[in-house]
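**Paired protein data**
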Amino acid sequence: MASHATQPAVRTGTGGDARRPAALWLPALFLLAFSFGTDDMVIAGILPDIARDLAVSVPLSGQLVTVFAVAYALGAPPAALLTARLPRRTVLVAAAGVFVVANLAAAAAPAYGALLAARAVAGLAAATASPVAFAVAAAAAPEGRQGRYLAVVGAGLTTSLVAGVPVGAWLGEALGWRATMLFVAALAAVAGTALAVTLPPLPGGAAGRLRDRLAPLGRRRTLIGLTAMVPAGAGGMMPYVYLTEVAGRLGEVRGAGVAPLITVVGAAGVAGSLAGGRAVDALGARRALLLFASGMLAAPALMLAFALAGGPYPRPVVAVLYLLYGLAAWGIGPAVQAWLIERDGGAAAGELIALNNSAMFLGFSLAGGIGGLALQAGGAAAVPAAAAGCLIVSLALFGTAFTGSRRKEE
């Protein structure tokens, strides 16, 4: 069995004190991640309502999704550096508070510009807290359970697809989109309050130069691994972004059949995230990463093979293909985070996870464009082909990161 002895990102100074209340603070981290994921994705379901209320076009209101993602991707690395020395509980509670205020401001926004600004602030707050949440989970986990603790936080993001987004969309339909923003604010407020009460004092990293904190980026294999997350994010998200088109080609899944398929993907994502954590603890980070990266490639490759072979296929066949996709695409997260912390974490764990998140979100932003070009050029079957191409590049980069001599690198 491969070793998974990670170097803690933070030291508590009290040993087991950080581990005993995990039954309380770990669910709070889950809920905080759940609120971030809900805020990121729920806007897509209430865009027409927002457009009508604020007298803007639906395409323009769609930029509310983009600004959150861009703020998150660009804000995560500098936020990690600026808050590196602060106590972890302080960062998490303060970021949760800013996130709550941003969503309250969004709920009260009188015009589109104000709402856009509130979304940007919410994205920055999420970018600040998310890497710290993962680093705390890894550092305070009992020995041999780091992967599972990372997976619980990751499952908060995934579960938002299954529970948070549908509930938020329903509230928006029943009470208006502003109620959805209040719902997200309430989730984060509960999470922040719970963390303030239950999370033990965890110091930030030791004082050090910026150059020292970014030193892992000077190591070839770490940099290659982070780079691999860009095509992984693009290829991994493409089958979801164009789910309607791909599922329609495979099994004529359209209209009312789309929502159940999205639920399948979300449920598979939750299971995959938890399975990814267990795989890290059982196999080690590197083997688990390769396992799920290979699975991510296999899923769109199978979709492409089925599309080229004929169809339409029964809906259960399409559901199984997307089930496999969800398991692999969301299962890789804990493995990547654990591998980065294991290799180069230490005091820079938060910065590394922030950079990983930025690379992943950059890939997400490319998924729509690359998939759209593929769809236009070759139809729905070209989408999984493009996804597989991106994932081949990602897998090759991960393979390169795992080979070579440490002596040459260090």
